[in-house]
Amino acid sequence: MANQPTKNTPMYYPWHHFVLLPALLILSGYSIRRYLAVAGDDSEDSRLWFTLMALAVVSFGVLVMLRQHYALQLQDRVIRLEVRQRYFEVTGQSLRPLEDQLTLKQILSLRFAGDAELPELVQAAIREKLAPKDIQARIQDFHFDHLRV
Questions:
Q1: DSSP per-residue letters across 2-26
Q2: Per its UniProt record, what InterPro entries does this chain match (predicted)?
């Protein structure tokens, strides 16, 4: 249990947080500084520093945005598990055999349904190939998800 993080302990991925992000931040700052020193010149140095600056800034932005992508992907997995658990608790049957007939977006929409209407909505989504918006439109007991990242 000593290696378990506490509730308030931030999680770090060393390669991401302590190598790539700092390196790209430093490279971005340095290349911006160097480009500003030669900006306006129509020289090889000016084009080189502009290119390096653009690549560094875009790479830094992509790396920061990947964090959000990872969080959303993980949250989708958690929602799938939540719907599985709720379906099992309500019906006493596993949702897994039916999951292959549902898209991830349908499952994400089903999470808003109340327990009483969940089994019927799962069947309707499979039978009628309902779009996520159609699933949400049929929900009578809507449970909002205020914890979405």
A1: TTSPPTTPPP--HIIIIIIHHHHHH
A2: DUF6526 (IPR045385)
Cβ neighbour number for residue 110 with a 10 Å cutoff: 26
Distance CA 85, CA 110 (A): 12
Structural tokens at position 77: 């997995």
Sheet strands (E) in 24-104: none
**Rounded to an integer, what distance in angstroms lies between the CA atom of residue 88 and that of residue 69?**
29
Mean pLDDT per 10-residue segment, the chain (149 residues): 54 83 93 92 92 94 86 91 96 95 96 95 96 96 81
Q: What is this structure's pTM? A: 0.63
Cα angle vertex 86, ends 85, 87, to 5°?
90
Q: Does residue 61 belong to any structural domain of this protein?
A: yes
